[in-house]
Amino acid sequence: MSVSMVAEDEIYDTPLDQIDVSHPKHFKRDTIGAYFKRLREEDPVHYCAEGHSGAYWSVTKFNDIVRVDTDHKTFSSDSTLGGISLDGPSERERATGARTDAPDLGLSMFIAMDP
């Protein structure tokens, strides 16, 4: 991967709590791999409170990913267990009108289909 010096400075100057690997600009600039490299080194289980599409966790190391992917009781996106739903606004969002800019695609999302 070839990341310019300017991009590399930006990657390492960005405070960890402001790194949002979901933002399309990182893919467009081809810097996404360098951001994930930094997260693996400094914050392998990273919480992004204000991501491009809302709050989310990034799990960036192989063994951690395997654990999260295979332990459905501990790590579930089931909204009845306090997890997330990506297939539309939550009850709170509907009640408050929050995130009215998010498109309602009417599609079920894979991540919301935990067993």
Describe the structure.
By secondary structure, the protein is mainly alpha-helical. It folds into 2 domains: 1-60, no CATH class; 76-115, no CATH class. 35% of the residues lie in helices and 7% in strands. It contains 5 helices and 2 strands. The protein has helices at 5-13, 24-28, 32-42, 62-70, 91-96, and strands at residues 45-48, 56-59. The chain has a two-stranded antiparallel ribbon with strand order 1-2. β1 (45-48) and β2 form a beta hairpin. It is globular and about 45 Å long. The protein starts with a helix and ends in a 19-residue tail after the last helix. The model has no long low-confidence stretch (mean pLDDT 80).
Give a brief outline of the structure:
By secondary structure, this protein is mostly helical. Helices cover 35% and strands 7% of the residues. The relative contact order is 0.11.
